[in-house]
């Protein structure tokens, strides 16, 4: 049988590379999607769409520089888990890497608000539906946090 989407039609697959940056206190960085973008106001992991012909790791390093102003070495990215979520108009496939080392100061380069959050508190921040299933993997690897 042919591979079909939820409606029985063809599915548009969108590949997004994302990172969970972890600080020395075991907090995870999330960023608020700016007004005007799809899913505005929701908190997400930094990252973005993989361009045609681009390696996902190169995409993530590029997006972390563009969005946060930091330099990340590929050796400092470890695969953690992935999201596969059926949105109305596309199928999101989003590998999530964990990163504990980077160069530079993390800043919201695109005007987005940032928050460093203990994994056990991530549910206090509204996230895209694709992201909720990723939280247990973060709690497993980092711990829920003290408070
Ligand atoms: N970066 C990121 N995108 C996510 C997450 N969860 C999630 O559903 N998405 C979706 O994945 C897609 C990636 O979008 P993006 O806006 O980050 O892509 P981008 O950085 O390349 O921006 P652009 O397309 O505006 O240039 C969006 O449809 C977004 O809603 C997440 O945790 N992080
Ligand atoms: Mg992005």
From TrEMBL:
This is 8-oxo-dGTP diphosphatase. The gene is mutT. Keywords: DNA damage, DNA repair, DNA replication, Hydrolase, Magnesium, Metal-binding, Mutator protein. Transmembrane segments: none annotated. It holds the Pfam family NUDIX_4. It comes from the Bacteria. Residues 12-140 form the Nudix hydrolase domain. Its cofactor is Mg(2+). Its EC number is 3.6.1.55. It is an enzyme of class 3 (hydrolase). It catalyses: 8-oxo-GTP + H2O = 8-oxo-GMP + diphosphate + H(+); 8-oxo-dGTP + H2O = 8-oxo-dGMP + diphosphate + H(+). PANTHER family: 8-OXO-DGTP DIPHOSPHATASE, NUDIX HYDROLASE FAMILY PROTEIN. Belongs to the Nudix hydrolase family. InterPro entries: Mutator_MutT, MutT-like, MutY_C, Nudix_hydrolase, NUDIX_hydrolase-like_dom_sf, NUDIX_hydrolase_CS, NUDIX_hydrolase_dom.
């Amino acid at each position: 049988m042919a591979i079909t989407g939820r409606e029985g039609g063809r599915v548009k697959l969108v590949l997004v590379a994302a990172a969970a940056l972890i600080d020395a206190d075991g907090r995870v960085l999330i960023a608020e999607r700016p007004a005007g973008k799809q899913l505005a106001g929701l908190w997400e992991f930094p990252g973005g769409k993989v361009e045609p012909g681009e390696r996902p790791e190169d995409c993530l390093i590029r997006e972390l520089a563009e969005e946060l102003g930091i330099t990340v070495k590929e050796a400092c990215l470890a695969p953690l888990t992935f999201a596969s979520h059926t949105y109305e108009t596309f199928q999101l496939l989003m590998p999530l890497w964990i990163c504990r080392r980077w160069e530079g100061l993390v800043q919201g380069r695109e005007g987005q608000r940032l928050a460093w959050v203990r994994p056990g508190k991530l549910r206090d921040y509204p996230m895209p539906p694709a992201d909720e299933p990723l939280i247990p993997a973060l709690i497993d690897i980092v711990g829920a946090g003290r408070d």
